[in-house]
Design a protein that fits this description.
Blueprint lengths: L3 E4 L9 E6 L14 E7 L8 E9 L6 E11 L2 E13 L3 E8 L14 E10 L3 E4 L1
Antiparallel strand pairs: 1-2, 2-7, 3-8, 4-7, 4-9, 5-6, 5-8
Length: 135
């Protein structure tokens, strides 16, 4: 049985969207990271086509016990922090896939921050209780 929880209001383009699914498989189109972080480059010719960023992690409880734990997400673009957000409402007792979407309006990215040639994105995840199984 699949459990789906979706928050946010994507139609206004100003709120992030969270989708939480039971399971442990990430969609294939997400880049995988190591040790809770991922870095990637975005060509400058995509600056005007950039609408937001989608992220995916797999969370699991420690020791098989149901646990409520916070997850922190930080996004850095060209050396400047553009998002630092914590979530504290995960209560899980099995593995869950969490897909997050942050629209450009939610990120503190000013056009002058973006470079014409390429932009360096860094994303960090921190799980304070429970386990970050995949990202």
């Amino acid at each position: 049985m699949q459990t789906i929880c979706m928050t946010g209001a994507p139609e206004d383009g100003k709120r992030n969207v969270d989708i939480v699914l039971t399971g442990r498989e990430m969609p294939e189109w997400f880049l995988h990271c190591k040790d809770g972080s991922i870095c990637f480059m975005v060509p400058g010719d995509l600056n005007d086509k950039f609408f937001g960023i989608a992220l995916c992690i797999v969370l699991g409880p420690k020791g098989g016990k149901a646990v409520k734990f916070p997850v922190e997400t930080e996004i850095v673009v060209n050396g400047k922090g553009v998002l630092s957000e914590g979530r504290k409402d995960f209560l899980i007792q099995s593995d869950h896939v969490w897909i997050q979407y942050f629209p450009l309006s939610k990120l503190d990215i000013k056009r002058e921050l973006l470079r014409d040639d390429q932009n360096h994105f860094q994303v960090y995840f921190k799980v304070l209780k429970g386990r970050l199984k995949k990202c």
